[in-house]
Design goal:
72 residues, mainly alpha, Protein Yjbj, Chain: A, globular
Length: 72
């Protein structure tokens, strides 16, 4: 499923920025849709442990599925 985000990163950047407002535009450019990069930037900006960042990304994915933002 995350490959959908990576392929449509420009469309999802706004949703990611809404969720994690401390991420800068430069952070989002570095992430470029890569899940592991996103987790690293969330850890860096929020001071989270890796498992907390992963949990938040999983919750984000679940919300996007419910909103039908991910079309599988």
């Amino acid at each position: 499923m995350w490959d959908r985000v990576e392929g449509s990163w420009k469309e999802f950047q706004g949703k990611v920025k809404e969720q994690w407002g401390k991420l800068t535009d430069d952070d989002l450019a570095v992430v470029a849709g890569k899940r592991d990069q996103l987790a690293g930037k969330i850890q860096e900006r929020y001071g989270y442990a890796r498992d907390k960042a992963e949990h938040e990304i999983n919750a984000f994915e679940a919300r996007m599925k419910e909103d039908r933002s991910f079309k599988e």
